[in-house]
Amino acid sequence: MFEAVVNGTLMLFRGIVTTLADTSRGLYSALISADSPVVDKVAEFAGIDSSVLGQYFEGAKTYILENFGESGLYATYIALAAITVFVLSKLFKLSFAILKLVVVPSVALAFVATFFLPQSFFHFLPVTVSLFSVLLLFRG
Hints:
140 residues; mainly alpha; 90% helix
C-alpha cells in the first residue's frame, strides 16, 4: 500500500516536471530571450543595451545547461522564483507596515491637531509623518 502511494506520488511529480519542462522552453523564450519585452524593460531600467542583457541571460543559461543539465536549469528557475516571491512578500509587508504605522496615524493626528490649534492640516502633516516614521524605525 505504501509503495503504491509513493509510486503514485512520484508519477505525479514526474508529470508536473515534464509539463514544466515542456512549457519552460516557451516561457524562457517569452521572458528571457534577447528580443523579449521583459529584457527590454530591465535593460531600460538598468540603463544598458537590451542585446547585452540578453547575451548575459543566454550565457548564464548555456553555462547552467553545460555544467548542471536540465535539472540545474529547473533548479535555477525555482530558486529565482522563490527569491522573487520572498522579496515581493517583504516589500508588501513593509508597505503595509508603513501604511498602518505611519500614514494612517499621521493623517489622523494632523486632522485632530487642526481642531485644537490654529494652523492648517498641511502644516501638521510633515511633523506627524516625521514623528511616526521615527517611531517605525525604533519599532523595527
